[in-house]
Amino acid sequence: MASLLWGTNPLLSSPEALDTARATVKEWAATEKAISREAAEWSGRKILLQDLIEVAQQRMDRLQAELEKGQDSLSASDEARAKLLDREEAVAVEAEQIENFLADLEARLQALRPQLPEPLEKELAPIYQRIPADPAETTLALGERMRTAVSLLAKIRQFDGKLTLAESLKMLPGSDEVASVRTLYIGLGQAYYLAPEDAGYGSPGPEGWVWQSELKLRKAIQEVIVLAEGGAMEPKFVDLPVVLSSAKGGAE
Q1: Which among 38, 75, 83, 134 is least surrounded, fewest beta carbons within 10 Å?
Q2: How many Cα atoms are found within 13 Å in the side-chain-facing hemisphere of 105?
Q3: What phi, psi does 206 have (nearest 5°)?
Q4: Mean pLDDT in runs of 10 for the chain (252 residues)?
Q5: DSSP characters for the chain?
């Protein structure tokens, strides 16, 4: 059969036809081989691309998570900032209230100063100098002003709770004579003095202390001073006048 076919097709039996066929087959085989090689290379590249895509996706996921975390942080920061602003406003309001309170308290302390007993006023004079003359213009911090006011109040309260015996040169009431006077202060509201030739009592008034000479009280005041100094063997009652209202000048 093969001989018959070759014999019946003169084109295939020629050498040129055979060379052409062989070349065609060879090219086809080379093409198939190239296709196979390209397919294999593509398969490898495909796997590599898939790995790269997966890595890129993971990175995108991390970036997205960090972005969301950053947004949460920004939200938290905004919330914290808003709270700080609210607190700052509240502190400003509180500071204004404290400043108003201090200004009123400082004014009251200044008004009280002339009514303080002389020994206490001298002791507190350096502290009084720290009170601002004009609260609206002062550069002193609120904390410093508060410490000054508290210090004054504490010392005034301490003086008011005890007996204080002081000695100084004073002008006697109703006289131009200056004498050495011993004065016993009963807290902030009452005092009794004893001079070589005089005696009497006093109490604070709106513009300062008001003194009243009462020579007949000399013996009783001497006894009180001895008791205050601890010189008496036993405590005893001593009758002395107590001024209830300096403005009226009355006493009981």
Answers
A1: 134
A2: 18
A3: -55, -35
A4: 44 64 74 72 71 77 77 73 77 82 93 95 96 89 92 95 93 90 94 94 92 93 88 61 55 45
A5: -HHHHHHH-TTTTSHHHHHHHHHHHHHHHHHHHHHHHHHHHHHHHHHHHHHHHHHHHHHHHHHHHHHHHHHHHHHHHHHHHHHHHHHHHHHHHHHHHHHHHHHHHHHHHHHHGGGS-HHHHHHHHHHHTTS-S-TTT----HHHHHHHHHHHHHHHHHHHTSEEEEEEEEEPTTSS-EEEEEEEEETTTEEEEEETTEEEEEEEETTEEEEEE-GGGHHHHHHHHHHHHT--SS---------SBTTTTB--
Is 199 buried (19+), middle (13-18) or exposed (0-12) by CB count in 10 A?
buried
Q: What is the pLDDT of residue 166?
A: 94
In angstroms and rounded to an integer, the radius of gyration of the C-alpha atoms of the chain is 55
**Residue 149: closest CA among 100, 102, 116, 115:** 102
User: For tokens 């209830």, what's the residue?
Assistant: 244
Q: What are phi and psi of 108, to 5 degrees?
A: -65, -40
* Closest residue by Cα to residue 159 from 129, 192, 189, 193: 189
Q: CB–CB of 182/172 below 8 Å?
A: no
